[in-house]
């Protein structure tokens, strides 16, 4: 018989037992979906955690004077006592391609008092314009509004408001040891109350415009403690930090530029833990897939041994027979991918844009200082999707090697004579 | 019917074995991952409750929110609670009970002063309960005869330049609201790995704290550790019943760990969810494999079925036969798989599976330091869950082939020589 | 504030018509000081100069005290802090901030590191127990130093005294019982800080050291120096004086 192209034969063979093909393909498709989905979900969980953890207050990258951490003394401003060109530094940081936004900050420890009730707090001077692009704490506003730049207005957490029995519009007194040794004190209006969900923040932080805090603690306008930045992608923070360390060294000495991976190492630990799991999941799923394909192909070839015997008798080379089977397996892989893709991608897109609510399962909780919402979040990972597809095809082919080899070794005479 | 099914299966050894193999692997994997998963959760919960206030915490109402010494359990409330815990039905499940008197204050040395969380503990109970005593890096934990002893964190020791034997003065507001100072000496320094704890936590003997603060027999918390975290709701209910009088009078509350640590609860649930999803997908794949092989066998035995029907077997019975075959196959292989999985887990890892290949040092999760060695936790409930799950999968996978079997046309079947 | 009272109580030897002291034990000498100001009232004006590595400043304050329970300190200079006052009544502490014309109550648990930015700690200020209660006092030297006859005392903490020092050493002039210096050591025998007394003069009929200088050992160049401009004893004030109203506007 005229030797038809082996791949066409393979394809046609698949069609001969459509049901079986479909079912096997379905199995493989589920495998594909499993891997891609699990990776997407794991990355979603990671991103959620990292973004919430760093995006709430820390930011994905921070610049300080090298001796600022861990003591956090009020005198250790960027550039030391002489201060620095803050705007220049902020611009330089924001200019980096991986950085989305940057903002300056000032910190001081002090007391917040409503007169009768007094509580210790961390006073944080922020730029109301730029801060929301770097951290989300101001977005947690539940009452009132954000303090206006230059005004004596502050924003405190819900827990602190409760302890002070204060509400929007009330007058609060801030007292803090100033950088010149005096006791800085002044009156402020409570402009807004925020809720982050984290007890530490809601009970200890008071946010006010950076200029107002500098005045309170006798720091010149060119003295700040920190420049915080958000990145376009949390995973770019490390390289951005390295680049910026070099770039900023030209502007000011004795700086330290730290990405979140070094500021919050516990998050990296969790990421690595999740990655350990991917590997195990993938191995198991593919093992099953191999098994399924091998099984099917084995049965198929056994079933069609007569056909192969005929082919061999008619002069088809064993290699051709083998490649027929392999082609069949390959086609099977392709079909599975099609089915798998058809199910996976729309689902991913849907869930990426409208994460299903999991609050029936659990409520908000905190992990690594991040508030994690009970939603099923998935992230795209095109690389993984492609790699999985390739692996699937390879697996299909590899799994059918043995059956294919056997098909070619069918002794034609015996086969044709009896069974 | 069953005998026929069995005989059929035996005749198709190779096919049966292949199908069974898939199910066995699946069952085994199920029974490996579930106990390990449960073991991990038990570990998380155990570590967390030991570092915190136990599976069940008895406190004065309002203490959870205020954390102030004014909201403490009076001596009588404490005694009532202790009596309650001795009740039959409760006593046998309780592993350890530890009382604590906690206060926020100042720790001073010649170097300076730092804010500190000072906790008066019963050294014996505390050592049995928490793992803080094992985190010692210098010196030792508190002992029953200690009086003016303190067990401090390495962060605090560094900040105040403390060594073993160093003088430390604790200052706080006592039960009357007055400032009171107390001398203690460092007998041990620990490192928990959690910065907030290492920089602020100090353990001193409960009797010393009581005399310093003038609080008599009062305590701020009674923490209870029970034998299994799953039993907590039942025990809490029983305890609440025992102490109904005191609870009504407003002198104490009984709280479980899920309320005290909701993030732990959530973390366990998420992990379980991930595990279930994974199992679901795994069995989806296996099911596909089974459908395939069973279907194939049906197709292959068309002639045989045709013959049987000609001999009087109804289509429904044919279908039933296939179902039974499928069921027997999956059940048997399921049982084998489950047993295999349980055996493997028990044999290799009953003393713990060391996960340090996946992550290299202890890390903190919600403020609790995790141990990389996972000890599997075997539960009958899980085995039954697994069996039922496999059965369901088996039934579902056999449905379509059985359906096809009922549709065999006798005449057609007999026609071809295959 | 109580700091004044306490330090004076510790070191002020008020036997101005100096009595025969040779036979008195160390304990008596120190205790006499303590007891004299116990239950007594005082009013003084002092200037405090603080030098740290980051800044230098000088404030002038007016101080009233009654026993160990009540004290009022009001800052009179510099201009920027004039009127700032602290009231201690029992275990409550209030601060008046003239700049914003507000009074805030500070729970004792929110003590901020050092007192008023100086090298004195809150421990020095707030604690009310007496030296002789917390320490065993012994003579460690008797003789001549730099041409002056002095005693030197060694104060070792009693076994359970709630104090941070390993030991304290004092030098006291024999002829007028004026302290010249006090050295504070930790338990390893390391000197942690030194307090020197000078400018002895008679105020309100008593001989007192008008200048006290505290220097930390680990930060050379830093110091806190307190100079008394005037000091009166046995003034006519009662508890009612130490009120919130007095905090805001003291006219005396």
SSE layout:
The complex is a heterotrimer of chains A (419), B (418) and C (252).
Chain A: H1 6-16, H2 18-58, E1 61-65, H3 86-95, E2 99-113, E3 118-126, H4 131-134, E4 141-144, E5 153-157, H5 158-164, E6 171-177, E7 183-194, H6 199-204, E8 205-209, H7 210-216, E9 226-231, H8 237-249, E10 255-259, H9 260-263, H10 265-303, H11 305-313, H12 318-353, E11 365-367, E12 370-372, H13 382-399, H14 401-408, H15 412-417
Chain B: H1 2-11, H2 13-51, E1 56-59, H3 63-66, H4 75-85, E2 94-109, E3 112-121, H5 123-129, E4 136-139, E5 149-153, H6 154-159, E6 167-173, E7 179-190, H7 195-200, E8 201-205, H8 206-213, E9 221-226, H9 232-242, H10 244-249, E10 253-256, H11 257-260, H12 262-300, H13 302-310, H14 315-349, E11 353-354, E12 364-365, E13 368-369, E14 373-374, H15 380-406, H16 410-415
Helix pairs in contact in B: 1-14, 2-12, 2-14, 2-15, 12-15, 14-15
Chain C: H1 2-11, H2 26-37, E1 41-51, E2 56-66, E3 70-77, E4 85-89, E5 92-97, E6 102-106, H3 122-126, H4 131-134, E7 135-145, E8 148-157, E9 167-173, E10 179-185, E11 191-203, E12 206-216, E13 223-233, H5 244-248
Antiparallel strand pairs in C: 1-2, 1-13, 2-3, 3-4, 4-5, 5-6, 7-8, 8-9, 9-10, 10-11, 11-12, 12-13
Helix pairs in contact in C: 1-2
> Which strand order spans the largest sheet of chain C, edge to edge or round the barrel?
6-5-4-3-2-1-13-12-11-10-9-8-7
CATH topology term of chain C: outer membrane lipoprotein receptor (LolB), chain A
Query: What coarse outline of chain B follows from CA principal-axis ratios?
Result: elongated
Radius of gyration from the alpha-carbon trace of chain C, in angstroms: 18 Å
Mean pLDDT of chain C: 79
Unreliable segments of 5+ consecutive residues of chain B: none
Number of strand elements of chain B = 14
Structural class of the secondary structure composition of chain B? alpha+beta
Could you say how many structural domains of chain C there are in total? 1
Q: Tell me the major beta sheet of chain C.
A: 13 strands, antiparallel
Mean pLDDT of chain B: 82
Query: How many DSSP-defined strands of chain C?
Result: 13
Distance between the termini of chain C: 16 Å
Q: What oligomeric state is this?
A: heterotrimer
Largest sheet of chain B: 6 strands, mixed, barrel
